[in-house]
Design a protein that fits this description.
Layout: E1 6-8, H1 18-23, H2 25-36, H3 51-54, H4 57-73, E2 76-80, H5 87-96, E3 113-117, H6 123-133, E4 138-144, H7 150-167, H8 169-173, E5 176-180, H9 186-194, E6 197-200, H10 214-222, H11 227-243, H12 250-263, E7 268-273, H13 279-293, E8 301-306, H14 315-320, E9 325-332, H15 359-376, E10 381-386, H16 391-411, H17 423-433
Parallel strand pairs: 2-3, 2-4, 4-5, 5-6, 7-8, 7-9, 9-10
Antiparallel strand pairs: 1-10
Helix pairs in contact: 2-12, 2-16, 4-10, 5-10, 5-13, 11-16, 12-16, 13-16
The chain binds 6-O-phosphono-alpha-D-glucopyranose.
C-alpha cells in the first residue's frame, strides 16, 4: 500500500488522559457501528460510504470522455456551483496544481483555465469574470443537486446567454455539462429540453459528500489531475477506517478527541495549514463540519487559518485569547517544490544563518515552534500528516474527514447528513425578492 496519512493526537494528552480516552471507546464505537450498519439518522444519505469502491464505472468513463472533449475544444471551463457543488473541486484543483494554474502560459499548462462562479451574489465578480473570459473558447459545467440554487442559477443564466451568443444555440448546448439530480429540479428539466450532457448526483449523496461523484470528478479531470488515484486513496482510507480498532483508527480517534474536548467546553476547532494551496481544503472542511454538526444549539464552530500568514493576524488570539479553541494542523510532510535561500556576501538582512537551507525547512520550524507555543498557551492540538501533495493523499484526506464526521455527528446525537438551518435565510430572501409561490 502507498504511504498513508497519519493522525497524531499527542498534542491533546494534557487535556484528555489515557483513561478518559479509553472510557470514551464504547461511545465512539457505538457511533461507528450506527454509521456502518446504516441505522442512524440521515441513513438515506450514506451513498458516499461505498462510492470509492462502487462508483459507477460507466459514469466515470463518460466523465473522462467529457473532460477530453472540454480539453480539446475549450481554453476555459467555467464551473458554476456553490457549497458542496463547488468546494470539493476547487479544493482538489488548488491542492494538486500550480499555485498560478490559470496564469501559466499555454506551454506550461495544456489543460483549460478553470474559473469558478455562481458561488456568491457579487455582480463585480461576475462582470470581472466576463472581462477575463473575453472571446476565448469556453464550456460550462453547471453543478447543482437541487437544480434550484439561486446563486448558481443566476450565474448560469448569464453565461449561458454569452455561450449562445458566441456559438449559436445548437453548438452552445454541446458545451454545457449539467451535473444534477437524476430527475428532479429546474436544471434537470432545462438540460433535457436543451440537450445538455448530464451527469448524475446520486440521491443518497449530499453536496458536502459529493466530490468523488461527477460534481468534483469532472472539473478535476478537466484540470488534468488523476481521478483514479483520488478514488484509490479514498478507497484505501475507507478500508482502514472501517476495519481498524479504536486505538488505531484515525477517523474514530479524531471524532472521539473533538467530542471529548467539546464536552470540556471547547467551542471552536481551528483547522490550520502551512501550505497556501490547502486553503480550499479548509473551506471544504468548514462546510462539511459546519453543516453536519452545527445543530441543536451545539457543535464545534469550524474555523480555519492559513499559516504562517495568519500568525501575523490571528496568532495573537490563538496564543492568548479566550481558551475556547482546539487546533487541527494539516502538515504536508514533503513539499512538492523546493526553493533554496541564497547566501549573500554581505549579511545585511542577517539571514545568512539560513543560507542554502530550503524555505520548507523554515516552514517546518515555524510549524513546530507554533505547535509548541499553542500547546503551552492552552490549545489542544491534533495533527494530520500528509505524506505528499498528490491525488492519492487527497483522496485519503477526503474520506478520513467524511468518516470522522459521520462518527462525530452520531456521538453528538445529531443527524450529520442534513442542513435544515440553511433554508431560513432563503425563505426571507425569496420573500424580499418576491419569488412567486408554487
Ligand atoms: O447543489 P445545490 O443544490 O445547488 O446546493 C448547493 C449548496 O447549497 C445549499 O444551500 C446547502 O446548504 C449546501 O449543502 C449545498 O451544497
Amino acid at each position: 500500500m502507498k504511504e498513508q496519512i497519519q493522525f497524531v493526537d499527542e498534542g491533546v494528552r494534557d487535556w484528555i488522559s489515557d483513561e478518559e480516552f479509553k472510557n470514551f471507546q464504547a461511545t465512539a464505537e457505538a457511533a461507528k457501528e450506527r454509521l456502518m450498519k446504516r441505522e442512524g439518522a440521515g441513513n438515506d444519505f450514506l451513498g458516499w460510504m461505498d462510492l470509492p469502491e462502487q462508483y459507477d464505472r460507466d459514469e466515470l468513463r463518460r466523465i473522462k470522455e467529457a473532460a477530453r472533449k472540454i480539453q480539446n475544444d475549450s481554453r476555459v471551463l467555467l464551473v458554476i456551483g456553490i457549497g458542496g457543488s463547488y468546494l470539493g473541486a476547487r479544493a482538489a484543483i488548488e491542492f494538486l496544481h500550480h499555485s498560478f494554474y490559470n496564469s501559466l502560459s499555454d506551454d506550461e499548462r495544456t489543460t483549460p483555465k478553470i474559473y469558478f462562479c455562481g458561488n456568491s451574489n457579487s455582480s463585480k465578480y461576475l462582470a470581472d469574470l466576463m472581462d477575463i473570459l473575453g472571446d476565448q473558447d469556453f464550456s460550462i459545467n453547471v453543478i447543482s443537486k437541487s437544480g434550484t440554487t439561486t446563486e448558481s442559477a443566476v450565474a448560469f443564466r448569464i453565461f449561458k446567454k454569452k455561450l449562445e451568443e458566441k456559438y449559436g444555440k445548437e453548438e452552445a448546448a454541446k458545451r454545457v455539462y449539467a451535473t444534477t439530480d437524476r430527475q428532479r429540479g429546474a436544471l434537470k428539466k432545462m438540460a433535457d429540453k436543451e440537450g445538455y450532457t448530464c451527469f448524475v448526483i446520486p440521491d443518497d449523496v449530499g453536496g458536502r459528500y459529493s466530490v468523488l461523484t461527477a460534481v468534483g470528478l469532472l472539473p478535476i479531470a478537466v484540470s488534468g489531475a488523476d481521478v483514479d488515484a483520488l478514488l484509490e486513496g479514498a478507497a484505501d482510507m475507507r478500508r482502514q477506517v472501517m476495519e481498524a480498532s479504536y486505538e488505531e483508527n484515525p477517523s474514530v480517534r479524531y471524532a472521539a478527541c473533538r467530542n471529548i474536548l467539546l464536552r470540556k467546553g471547547k467551542a471552536v476547532e481551528v483547522l490550520a495549514n502551512y501550505e497556501t494551496s490547502l486553503h480550499y481544503v479548509s473551506e471544504w472542511w468548514k462546510q462539511l463540519y459546519g453543516e453536519s454538526e452545527g445543530k441543536n444549539q451545539r457543535g464545534l464552530f469550524p474555523a480555519a487559518v492559513d499559516l504562517t500568514t495568519d500568525l501575523h493576524s490571528m496568532g495573537q488570539y490563538m496564543q492568548d485569547g479566550a481558551r475556547i479553541l482546539i487546533e487541527t494542523v494539516m502538515n504536508v510532510e514533503e513539499s512538492p517544490r523546493t526553493v533554496e535561500i541564497p547566501a549573500e556576501e554581505e549579511d545585511l538582512d542577517g539571514l545568512n544563518y539560513l543560507a542554502h537551507k530550503t524555505v520548507d525547512f523554515v516552514n517546518k520550524a515555524a510549524m513546530e515552534g507554533t505547535i509548541a507555543a499553542h500547546e503551552e498557551g492552552g490549545v489542544p492540538i491534533m495533527r494530520i500528516d500528509l505524506p505528499r501533495q498528490d491525488e492519492y493523499t487527497l483522496g485519503q484526506l477526503f474520506y478520513f474527514f467524511w468518516f470522522a464526521c459521520g462518527v462525530s455527528g452520531y456521538i453528538g446525537a445529531i443527524n450529520p447528513f442534513d442542513q435544515p438551518g440553511v433554508e431560513s435565510y432563503k425563505r426571507n430572501m425569496f420573500a424580499i425578492l418576491g419569488k412567486p409561490q408554487k
